[in-house]
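Tokens for Protein PHYLLO. Go.
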Amino acid sequence: MQISVETISGLLRKLIDEISTEGQRVVLVGYSMGARIALHMALNSDKIKGTVIISGSPGLKQESNRKIRQAIDKSRAKLLISHGLHNFIETWYSTKLRSSLREHPHFDRVLQSRTQHDHVESLAKVLNDSSVAKQRSLLG
């Protein structure tokens, strides 16, 4: 099964349908991939009252941008498998974009907890399958 944003969105919509009461609506909060999932959910469910989207993309409209991003995400997935999770995470958090995260007083604890995952191939699959390049653009 492909682990796409659309697939995850659909599964979470079903969960909300199952656990919510009649007429109950929810507000979703999502960051990054979670924001992309929340966008898809909001557009496809009347159970969503609102969303808080943080650093989420509605998708890439231009095919050339999609191809570039797909190549980047494939490369990241290969790097994860070939160099291991610890090196991947160190590289991920070493970018200027994430410098404020590194300054957080609990960053080392968060970093250590993220390196405890022992299914690197599964993580690489999620990274590849849920790429914004594979996501249906919500821009029309």
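The two ends are 26 Å apart (CA to CA).
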